[in-house]
Design brief:
single chain; ABC transporter involved in vitamin B12 uptake, BtuC; globular
Length: about 325
């Protein structure tokens, strides 16, 4: 009997739904203070504070950021028709979203005390503008050969990350009380609170729903501009809209968690491999599940890899993402 795509999807769900639930439980239990499993159902006052104020916000951040980066990667790979495209590799996250948004948001508030605008609102807005700037630079200089896009993304990423480190060092010398911004280069959900989760969720949810509902049009655009035009889609306008939406979900993630690399690269390819399909109407919604799961386990690994130290999540995801990138480069060379 030949397995159908539906069979593969069922197997995918049988694998990832239990992994997702186990990952949530592990994130609630593991940390600087280990919480007994039975205490999750009847916590003491101390455990209740840890769970409600620290662990649950981190879990929700993992779910939202994992979904955002996974969907952003799937969309960028379709829009650019490049299997290596994703927010981290193309520089959208590590370039513009960080320098143009998170850094400027903190600086503006710290130096000018902008009235009526909280950093929780200002940072995502400026991150969005920075993400669009970085993506525009990469698209302009990365046209032509498929590898040009990746090289342009790496160049933008290195450039803006370097500027962040220089400015961060300088600012700490003139404003010692300003929190170090360079930590945003590493990526972590530690310290994320309910307010930041609500901002991320309120921005991300409608965009993710729209992208999932537009998956058929994304399929047409992935084939060619001519096919998209024949299907009633304006290729240029729809591509620009998708780039803007991907920039927005990437920006709102980077604003509060820093740069988390390779989730957007790995997740869509793992999803396609497991369901044996490149249909975005299946890949994109399932990538929400697999991306969230990957983020949950990366966060757990960041806490247990070195006892007593929380490692950057990007360090964990890169251990798996770089081999995937090299395999894809080998296959395309």
């Amino acid at each position: 009997m030949i397995a159908t795509v539906k069979d593969f999807i069922i197997k995918f769900l049988w694998i990832f739904i239990p992994l997702l639930l186990i990952g949530i439980v592990l994130n609630l239990i593991i940390g600087e203070v280990t919480i007994p499993l039975k205490a999750l159902f009847d916590p003491t006052n101390t455990y209740r504070v840890i769970i409600m104020d620290i662990r649950l916000p981190e879990v929700l951040a993992c779910l939202v950021v994992g979904s955002n980066l996974a969907v952003a990667g799937a969309v960028m790979q379709a829009v650019f028709r490049n299997p290596l495209a994703e927010p981290y590799v193309t520089g959208t996250a590590s370039g513009g979203a960080l320098f143009g948004g998170a850094l400027l948001g903190l600086l503006t508030y710290a130096l000018f005390k902008v009235p009526l605008i909280s950093p929780i609102i200002l940072m995502p807005i400026l991150s969005f503008l920075g993400a669009l700037l970085a993506t525009a630079i990469v698209v302009i200089f990365g046209r032509g050969y498929w590898l040009s896009l990746i090289l342009a993304g790496i160049a933008v990423s290195i450039l803006f990350s370097s500027i962040v480190m220089i400015l961060d060092t300088y600012l700490l010398t003139i404003i010692p009380t300003l929190p170090a911004i360079v930590y945003l280069l590493f990526g972590t959900v530690s310290g994320v609170n309910w307010g930041e989760d609500i901002v991320m969720l309120s921005v991300s949810l409608p965009i993710l729903v729209y992208i999932v509902m537009s998956s058929h049009e994304i399929n047409l655009l992935m084939m060619s501009d001519e096919v998209a035009q024949a299907g009633g889609v304006s290729p240029r306008a729809f591509r620009n809209l998708l780039i803007a939406l991907v920039g927005l979900v990437t920006a709102v993630s980077v604003s509060f968690t820093g740069i988390i690399g390779f989730v957007g690269l790995m997740t869509p390819h793992i999803t396609r491999l497991l369901i044996s399909s490149s249909d975005n109407s299946r890949v994109i919604p399932l990538s929400v599940i697999s991306g969230s799961t990957i983020m949950l386990y990366a966060n757990v690994a960041s806490k247990v890899l070195v006892p007593g130290v929380v490692m950057p999540i990007t360090a964990i995801t890169s251990l798996f993402g770089v081999p995937v990138l090299l395999i894809l480069l080998r296959g395309w060379s």
